[in-house]
From TrEMBL:
<dbReference type="InterPro" id="IPR049492">
    <property type="entry name" value="BD-FAE-like_dom"/>
</dbReference>
<feature type="domain" description="BD-FAE-like">
    <location>
        <begin position="102"/>
        <end position="265"/>
    </location>
</feature>
<dbReference type="GO" id="GO:0016787">
    <property type="term" value="F:hydrolase activity"/>
</dbReference>
<protein>
    <submittedName>
        <fullName>Alpha/beta hydrolase</fullName>
    </submittedName>
</protein>
<keyword id="KW-0732">Signal</keyword>
<keyword id="KW-0378">Hydrolase</keyword>
<dbReference type="Pfam" id="PF20434">
    <property type="entry name" value="BD-FAE"/>
</dbReference>
<feature type="signal peptide">
    <location>
        <begin position="1"/>
        <end position="21"/>
    </location>
</feature>
<dbReference type="InterPro" id="IPR050300">
    <property type="entry name" value="GDXG_lipolytic_enzyme"/>
</dbReference>
<dbReference type="InterPro" id="IPR029058">
    <property type="entry name" value="AB_hydrolase_fold"/>
</dbReference>
<feature type="region of interest" description="Disordered">
    <location>
        <begin position="33"/>
        <end position="59"/>
    </location>
</feature>
């Protein structure tokens, strides 16, 4: 295991034969999130893999969220803001981040893999710290869409596990003010044009919630109001964006019921939604864990869905 501090800069790695020297930029204008001043979190980057060809980095103690860019050589104008999982204790950067770049870049998608702060580490926004980071991230991408060769009306969020909760929270609570405005970028819409929820943590209802994520987010004895506020299936509105859901029925960590309740909530509001349930795959399969399984089809199924998705009617503002 290798531990080192998180730094803004170029990341060098090799994934599945693809070599990258990736640009990295901060989510917040001064690096550290404004709400991090009350936190004692200590940033670390941990390499958990013993195989150099299969990196498995985990970021912990995040104070200065960052976005790593994987641009497409032949862009199709669409962008995926990636929020990897980690039980709201860490952010897993490769299995649910850099691993995605070869396939999706080849199809023309620009990938933006972000780190986000943990809700239980004393940040001023509390349980809303990850949402604040996601709102700021998508606003930054939209405000700088021309720079990254993306259509500002074709920017979606793709979240895995606890990162799926971040994504679903953004898709249902994008208009809620959860941090003080810092500059003109904060006047740009934070609404994602679509959501991709991969084996997501959704509900905070005790009978189906992922216990670890729930504890980190709202504690062991939350109020009914907290449960409702942080259960995205209870926050769906007519403005929630089109959604693509993927889950394994045999998931032992995050019950498939999380995707099922989100699917039902979206249907109730007549939001376009597509869901793929696979018999096998367990939890956290990403791309690595799908070899020899029907679940290996999920990236192509997502690409098929995105290619026919109507352009959003959202009218974003340009960069100041």
């Amino acid at each position: 295991m290798i531990v080192r501090s998180l730094l803004v800069g170029a990341i060098m790695m090799s994934v599945n034969g693809f070599s990258y020297a990736q640009p990295v930029f901060p989510v917040w204008p001064h690096g550290e999130a404004p709400g991090a001043s009350s936190s004692t979190a200590q940033p670390q980057l941990v390499e958990r893999s013993k195989d150099p060809s299969l990196p498995d980095r985990a970021a912990t103690g995040i104070r200065s969220p960052e976005i790593t860019v994987y641009p497409a050589e032949k862009p199709n104008g669409m962008a995926l803001l990636i929020t990897p999982g980690g039980s709201y204790q860490r952010v897993v950067l490769d299995k649910e981040g850099s691993d995605l770049a070869p396939f999706f870049n080849q199809q023309g998608y620009a990938l933006f893999v972000m780190t986000y702060r943990m809700p239980g580490e004393g940040h001023k926004e509390g349980a809303d710290a990850p949402l604040a980071d996601a709102q700021r991230a998508i606003r930054t991408l939209r405000a700088n869409a021309e720079k990254w060769h993306i259509n500002p009306q074709r920017i979606g969020i793709m979240g895995f596990s606890a990162g799926g909760h971040v994504a679903a929270s953004l898709g249902t609570r994008f208009a809620q003010s959860v941090y003080p405005a810092t500059d003109a970028i904060d006047s740009v819409s934070a609404r994602p044009d679509f959501m991709v929820l991969m084996y997501p943590v959704i509900s905070m209802q005790a009978d189906i919630a992922h216990a670890g994520s729930r504890k980190q987010l709202i504690g062991e004895q939350p109020t009914e109001a907290q449960v409702a506020r942080y259960s995205p299936e209870k926050q769906v509105t007519a403005q929630t964006p089109p959604t693509f859901l993927v889950h394994a029925v045999d998931d032992p960590s995050v019950s498939v019921d999380n995707s099922l309740v989100m699917f039902s909530a979206l249907r109730a509001k007549q939001i376009p939604v597509e869901m793929h349930l696979f018999e096998k795959g367990k939890h956290g399969f990403g791309l690595r864990g799908t070899k020899g399984l029907p679940a290996a089809a999920w990236p192509q199924l997502l690409d098929n869905w995105l290619r026919v998705l109507p352009v959003s009617t959202e009218q974003p503002k340009a960069a100041p």
